Amino acid sequence: MATIDWPTVPLKDGVLVPILGFGTGTAWYKDDPNDPFNPELVLVLKAALAKGLIHLDAADSYGTEREVGVAIKESGIPRDKLFVTTKVLEGWRDAPKALKESLERLQLDYVDLNCLRGHRLTKAAGLTRAIGVSNFQRHHLEAILKTCTEPPALNQLEYHPYLQRSDNYVPWMQQKGIQVSSFKTLAPVTVAPGGPLDAVLSSIAVKHATTPDAVLLSWAIGKTVVPITTTSKGERMDEYLSAVALKLSPQEQEDITKVGLERHFRWWGKAFFKPDDRS
């Protein structure tokens, strides 16, 4: 396994989250969690782990927890050297039961981060080191903060230069002690190419002898946001890892932020938002 001095983001309870995560949604997502076991995903995950990508992201709704568990077991990497996130989405009505079922599929005694609703009991049972939520809007969090005994430590949501979230939402969460993790961080080059950022990203990538993908990941990291991304290709894994060491200048960060605001694009949950809603 490659040894990487991982930068981390601290959660309010002291848990340290590696700044880059390797996801198992999107391309690996199963329409039915009971679909056949995918040995190809196990090989991809083992390759990612071997390269040092120790932060793995899963969810009960992805249908990939079994593959994550097998990959971890076959990698031979000690459990305490890994950071494993899962999300209880399908089983939110009984979160403790759902998390226990996830742990069975993962072949683990605990996860490092569990993102769901109704999360207090799962942490009390010692099944996760930290609790979080996923795809929560500001009004959701405001309601939770008024009543909860333990606030969520992290919110995982879509975040990229074309969806920077309006009303200062990301800085507001960080000020409240809620860290932010992002999915679809590479949207400007993967699912929304041809926009105003193309030339900016290309120019910055050339300057740093890297790729637009690495520049986007570095931009998110520079915002103290933990991006989650995935690939089946080893060279792309190397590209993602290079983003951890890539340091953009303040001007480059600002250029991406400013130009990104010229376009609005949302990949997830379009049915829930009006076309011009940037929240």
Automatic annotation (TrEMBL):
Site described as Lowers pKa of active site Tyr, located at 87
Active site annotated at which positions? 62
Which InterPro entries is this protein grouped with?
Answer: AKR, NAD(P)_OxRdtase_dom_sf, NADP_OxRdtase_dom
Indicate whether NADP appears among the record's keywords.
yes
Concerning Pfam families, the annotation shows: Aldo_ket_red (PF00248)
Q: Which Gene3D superfamilies match?
A: NADP-dependent oxidoreductase domain (3.20.20.100)
The similarity comment for this entry is: Belongs to the aldo/keto reductase family.
Tell me the protein's name: NADP-dependent oxidoreductase domain-containing protein
